[in-house]
Design goal:
Layout (H helix, E strand, L loop, with lengths): L14 E6 L5 E6 L4 E5 L4 E6 L6 E6 L5 E6 L3 E6 L4 E7 L5 E6 L5 E6 L3 E6 L1 H7 L15 H8 L13 E7 L5 E6 L5 E6 L3 E7 L4 E8 L7 E4 L5 E5 L4 E6 L5 E6 L5 E6 L6 E5 L2 E5 L8 E4 L4 E5 L4 E6 L4 E2 L4 E2 L10 E7 L4 E6 L6 E6 L12 E6 L2 E6 L2 E6 L4 E5 L5 E6 L4 E6 L4 E6 L2 E6 L4 E7 L5 E4 L5 E5 L3 E6 L4 E6 L4 E6 L5 E5 L2 E5 L5 E6 L4 E7 L2 E6 L4 E5 L3 H10 L3 H10 L5 H9 L3 H4 L6 H10 L3 H11 L2 H14 L2 H10 L3 H11 L2 H13 L3 H11 L2 H10 L3 H10 L3 H10 L40 H6 L15 H12 L18 H4 L5 H6 L10 H9 L3 H6 L3 H12 L8 H10 L1 E7 L5 E7 L1 E2 L10 E2 L7 H13 ...
Antiparallel strand pairs: 1-2, 2-3, 3-4, 5-6, 6-7, 7-8, 9-10, 10-11, 11-12, 13-14, 14-15, 15-16, 17-18, 18-19, 19-20, 21-22, 22-23, 24-25, 25-26, 26-27, 26-28, 29-30, 30-31, 31-32, 33-34, 34-35, 35-36, 37-38, 38-39, 39-40, 41-42, 42-43, 43-44, 45-46, 46-47, 47-48, 49-50, 50-51, 52-53, 54-55, ...
Protein name: Coatomer subunit alpha
Subcellular location: Cytoplasm; Golgi apparatus membrane
Pfam family, one: COPI_C
């Protein structure tokens, strides 16, 4: 589908013709306002207007070499303009009716014009060319100058003959049409003219130096012929008619070759692309671009001899040897058995018989032929046919069998080598084509699926959902199959399970597997690769389209559109490096790093994304990039080296944070010194036990007269006298006295009291004040250089790249008896083997609110969940808990939050607060009692979930919510139906929060919850899209249509999807997007075929089908494999998707790290092991 680039609006009325200059960035147009306008494609504005015509302008064309424009008009004239000086240079008169067409000869000084006066005229403009050409440099009057006589003649008005012009003379008048002539064209090489008229005929004329005559005509059109032209390179004539057909004719025999017909649209014009094999035709509803035939040369490979058989452009069989890289002479000439003007579509080779099967032609004209190849190459021999018949596809499936498929009868026939049908199978009517499968099998290509079909057993072995697959390429080991459509590649394994799917914006042309199992494919202008995990990249940019046939080592063998083999060298280093990294073949990775030149931002970004920053470090020289990578792989040495080079505050801050995490006190100290973070430096010295440095910090604070810092260091040092002196210096004498008194320094206290002029009676101190110095926190170990962490080990790459090859191994470490105890000691610290516990809550809940112990000091000491201070029942619940919901019921909110974060990437816990409290309070009761003295007391009662008790009798707390899920979903449906969309979203979101914190007992319950989660995901996203659409301003028509289409794309209940489809259908119809309106109507009718709404849909579909155009191009393809980005509401494909972990909602990569808009609790692209619901 074409895309509108710009609109040019300056004509007053309809525009009838446009022509682009062959080399300059300009184009010319003519219209019903009698003017010719020249436009710039760079500024997108009209450069100037040429006036002079007195009626509608029918056609305009540029001269191939001169700065001229020719225009034909209903004022019965042909005018020639110089677009450089913007003047009319000739007016050709002689026609006595509308001139429908006029154009220059591509090489000679001739013009041809066609008129409704039933004539075609050929004009000689050699005089005009001579008159307006630049003067010769060989003039006797000087270099490039003119004599006075020539200059005088050039300035005089031209002398006119009886037709008004002597510079452009009528050379021939061609009469023969019975009605008006609409078009006439020159042949690009031969002295021929073709014309078409209202008499429904096409006439061919030949010219000589002295005369012109009619050669023959082409009859077949049933209405007027508005346009006709010669094929630029082939002996063909192409015409369009008001009979709604495009027709091609053999120039030599004047017989019809092919015909294409539209149902409702008349054709008006056809033009050929100046450089490539494309044509464009305009009709009542728009423009269509087409080829007359495919350009892909048919080919097949003999696997036993590694030879390529292919058909060249002369319909000859040739052979290419991959070993010698040599092309043989033609083996056979297939001109007599191939249909005229039809390319051979498929060939299949049988090595056991040295025979070949070819298929040529489309639809009912398709035929196949079966023949032997000569043993020796002696030239283009005529083949000896062993069998032939009608078919649209034909392939060998065994050494003694081949199959043919005829689309019109849906028959798959199995033939023996004598061309006898041994079996006939009727296939589904939606089978469009077949391609070879595994031995004895074929692939049935349907409109929306691909089926692996066993011909012998008449059995479907596998089905894959894929739209409009065209080609299939098996890997060399037959373990994988690549299926190609126009814009999609799907790779499946031999069980027909999808391995990878990807989307290309540029049309895919061919594909082949290399020796290592990597798929290389070609587009219109690139050769690319894709790995089985979806990673892809570009190998080579192409000048012309190529079709890959084989890839071996660093050699790629292709066929071009001329039917020739092109072999060239590629660099497979990048994709082999990625493949080795994915498969963890680290020795191969190391070899490639050492022997290849892997550079570039792409490979560095790939290594970072794949979790190998230490490898990326080997390729980077930029200090900031090296610093980022070093921090990512925790290499403090390189990070420190690069930080010294950059020397900026943010870099030092990041380094200090990483060093502190690793427990590297030396680097942390250096960073604090660089950033003058003196308070942090003092605390660091306290924790490491470096009292000498602490003393220096106190002296520095004293010198700086920083009372706060001095006081802090005094506390760290336990220097009471310095602390007291600090108080005195700060004027805080009461604090100084109280400190001295409480520290037992009586003499110093009396001295302070005396200096203040007070007595002991004037001072009031607490009664329980201690009279001994308070202890000061001391580090566990005296001075340590770094924290006592486990020894950090270099990765495999870091060891290898540093030259340390001793004991270098990439094997997994084995668990021995010696280290088994260490592993067990580490594991014992966790009650839940799956989920480690975070250090703190994600959101703050007060003690009075939760009635649970949240002692921070105890949590810092615990790796496990401390239950010693909990009641007996709660201790039991915690001990038996395996799900977040069970921990919430026991009051361990921090553990539950940590599990939800680890399992589902949940970061925002605020929306879950009410759900946490609901679970916590649902399992507890307080019963008020009165003792004998009448004193009121509270008796706590804990509600166990008996149903979830296991065989050993282990119980957990009651977690509510499962029984109300279905009712809540139904409530969401009702709100949807009532058009209360925002309330419906809140209900579905509530369901998600309930399920995320459930504690289930059976697999059936878990599966049911997963199904409900998928429903909630689809409905929330669908409703958010619809609410966004409703909020759009009226001017956003295109976005409105796109959002309506995406709304209909969501997987809603049929009754609800009807609403979405009706919205999309009516919006598309109002905006005159009739193609899309018809599609949405057809989808609507699949669900509801009767009733008033169905009747309206049928009317819309009928009206839309009668017009079948789209006024606005929107980004929506209902048949491609894509999903909606829940952030931007645009389509996303394949590797461009990142997901959150609760529902698996997809987003574009730019949303990574943000909170999901659907769940409002989970991080997009976050890491999670999967939500655990079953206890």
């Amino acid at each position: 589908m074409g895309t509108l680039i710009d609109r040019f609006e300056d004509h007053d009325g309809p525009v009838r013709c446009v022509a682009f200059h062959p080399t300059q960035p300009i184009f010319v147009s003519g219209g019903d306002d009698y003017t010719v306008k020249v436009w710039s494609t760079q500024t997108r504005k009209c450069m100037f207007t040429l006036t002079g015509h007195l009626d509608y302008v029918r056609t305009v064309f540029f001269h191939n070499e001169l700065p001229w424009i020719i225009s034909a008009s209903d004022d019965q004239t042909v005018r020639i303009w110089n677009w450089q000086n913007r003047k009319e240079i000739a007016c050709l008169t002689g026609h006595n009716h509308y001139v429908m067409c006029a154009q220059f000869h591509p090489k000679q000084d001739l013009i041809v014009s066609a008129s409704l006066d039933q004539t075609v005229r050929v004009w000689d403009i050699s005089g005009l060319v001579k008159k307006h050409s630049a003067p010769s440099s060989s003039s006797p009057y000087g270099n490039g100058s003119m004599n006075q006589f020539d200059q005088y003649n050039r300035n005089q008005p031209p002398q006119q003959d009886i037709f008004g012009n002597t510079d452009a003379i009528v050379k021939y008048v061609l009469e023969g049409h019975d009605k008006g002539v609409n078009w006439a064209s020159f042949h690009p090489e031969l002295p021929l003219i073709v014309s078409g008229g209202d008499d429904r005929s096409i006439k061919l004329w030949r010219m000589s130096e002295t005369r012109a005559w009619e050669v023959d005509g082409c009859r077949g059109h049933t209405n007027n012929v508005p346009c006709v032209l010669f094929h630029p390179t082939e002996d063909l004539i192409i015409s369009v008619g008001e009979d709604k057909t495009i027709r091609t004719w053999d120039l030599n025999s004047r017989s019809p070759v092919k015909q294409f017909k539209r149902e409702n649209d008349r054709f008006w014009m056809v033009v050929a692309h100046p450089n490539i094999n494309l044509f464009a035709a305009c009709h009542d509803s728009g423009v269509m671009v087409f080829k007359l035939d495919r350009e892909r040369p048919a080919s097949t490979i003999n696997p036993s001899t590694q030879e390529l058989f292919f058909i060249n452009n002369d319909n000859q069989v040739q052979k290419y040897n991959f070993g010698s890289k040599a092309t043989s002479l033609p083996l056979l000439s297939l001109k007599k058995i191939a249909l005229p003007w039809n390319k051979i579509r498929n060939i299949s080779y049988n090595p056991s018989e040295n025979s070949m099967l070819i298929q040529v032609g489309d639809n009912d004209n398709g035929v196949y032929s079966y023949f032997n190849l000569p043993k020796e190459v002696v030239g283009a021999l005529e083949p000896s046919i062993r069998g032939e018949g009608k078919a649209n596809s034909a392939y060998f499936i065994a050494r003694n069998r081949f199959v043919t498929f005829l689309r019109s009868s849906h028959k798959l026939d199995v033939h023996d080598l004598n061309n006898n049908i041994t079996k006939s199978i009727t296939l589904d009517s939606d089978v469009k084509d077949i391609v070879p499968g595994t031995p004895g099998c074929v692939l049935l290509l349907k409109g929306s699926s691909v089926v692996l079909f066993d011909v012998q057993q008449k059995k479907e072995l596998g089905t894959l959902q894929m739209n409009n697959a065209k080609y299939a390429v098996w890997s060399n080991d037959h373990q994988h199959l690549a299926l190609l459509s126009k814009h999609t590649i799907v790779i499946v394994n031999k069980k027909f399970e999808t391995v990878m799917s990807m989307h290309e914006t540029i049309r895919i042309k061919s594909a082949a597997w290399d020796d290592t199992g990597v798929l290389l494919y070609s587009t219109l202008n690139h050769i690319k690769y894709v790995l089985l995990n979806g990673d892809r990249g570009t190998i080579k940019t192409l000048e012309n389209t190529l079709y890959i046939t084989k890839v071996s080592g660093n050699s790629c063998y292709c066929l071009n559109r001329k039917g020739e083999v092109e072999a060239f060298t590629i660099d497979p280093t990048e994709y082999r490096f990625k493949k080795a990294l994915i498969n963890k073949k680290f020795n191969e990775v190391l070899r490639i790093i050492r022997n290849s030149n892997l550079v570039g931002e792409n490979i560095i970004a790939y290594l970072k994304k794949s979790g190998y920053p230490e490898v990326a470090l080997q390729f980077v020289e930029d200090p900031e990039s090296r610093f980022d990578l070093a921090i990512e792989c925790h290499n403090l040495a390189i990070a420190l080296e690069e930080a010294n080079k950059i020397d900026s505050k943010p870099i030092w801050e990041r380094l200090g944070k990483e060093a502190l995490i690793q427990g590297n006190t030396q680097v942390t100290e250096l960073v604090y010194q660089k950033l003058h973070l003196l308070d942090k430096l003092s605390f660091l010295y306290l924790t490491t036990g470096e009292n000498d440095k602490l003393n220096k910090m106190a002296n520095i604070a004293e010198a700086r007269e920083d009372i706060g810092s001095l006081f802090t260091n005094s506390i760290y040092l336990g220097d009471v006298e310095r602390k007291i002196q600090t108080f005195i210096n700060a004027g805080l004498t009461p604090l100084a006295y109280a400190t001295a008194k409480s520290s037992g320094l009586e003499e110093l206290a009396d001295s302070i009291l005396e200096q203040s002029g007070l007595s002991i009676d004037d001072v009031s101190l607490p009664k329980n004040i201690t009279k001994k110095p308070l202890g000061v926190l001391k580090p566990v170990n005296k001075f340590v250089e770094n924290w006592p962490l486990g020894e950090a080990k270099l990765s495999f790459f870091e060891q290898a790249l540093s030259g340390n090859f001793e004991d270098l191994s990439i094997e997994e470490s084995k668990v021995t008896e010696d280290n088994a105890n260490e592993i067990m000691d580490d594991a014992i610290e966790y009650q839940d083997d799956d989920e480690p516990i975070d250090d703190g809550d994600a959101w703050d809940l007060g003690d009075e609110e939760l009635d649970v112990d949240l002692d921070v000091e105890e949590e810092l000491e615990e790796t496990n969940t401390d239950v010693s201070k909990l009641p007996k029942e709660l201790r039991s619940w915690v001990k038996n808990a395996k799900t977040p919901g069970a921990y919430i019921a026991a009051g361990k909110f921090d553990v539950a939050a940590g599990m939800l974060n680890k399992q589902a990437g949940i970061k925002n816990f605020a929306p879950l607060k009410d759900r946490f409290m609901e679970i916590y309070t649902a399992s507890k009761l307080n019963i008020f009692t009165f003792d004998e003295a009448g004193i009121k007391t509270s008796l706590p009662v804990y509600i166990n979930d008996i149903e979830k008790a296991d065989e050993a009798g282990k119980i957990v707390g009651f977690v509510p919510g499962y029984d109300e899920l279905e009712n809540l979903v139904q409530e969401g449906y009702k709100l949807f139906k009532a058009n209360q969309l925002e309330d419906s979203i809140q209900i579905f979101r509530k369901v998600i929060y309930i399920i995320a914190t459930l504690s289930l007992n059976s697999n059936d319950e878990e599966e049911k919850c997963k199904e409900i989660m998928n429903i909630c995901k689809e409905y929330i996203l669908a409703l958010q899209i619809e609410l966004t659409r409703r909020a759009l301003p009226a001017t956003e028509v295109k976005r409105n249509l796109e959002l309506a289409a995406y709304f209909s794309h969501m997987k809603l209940q049929p009754a609800h999807r009807l609403n979405a489809l009706q919205v999309a259908m009516t919006q598309s119809f109002k905006a005159k997007n009739y193609h899309y309106a018809s599609y949405f109507a057809s989808e609507f009718l699949k669900i509801m075929s009767t009733g008033s709404r169905a009747e309206q849909a049928k009317k819309i579909q009928a009206k839309a089908d009668s017009i079948a155009t789209d006024a606005i191009v929107i980004d929506y393809d209902p048949f491609a494999d894509w999903e909606i980005c829940a952030g931007d509401y645009v389509p996303i494909y394949g590797n461009d998707i990142v997901r959150e972990k609760v529902l698996g909602v997809g987003y574009g990569k730019s949303w990574k790290g943000k909170i999901c808009k659907v769940t409002q609790i989970s991080e997009i692209g976050g890491v999670g092991s999967g939500l655990r619901l079953k206890n």
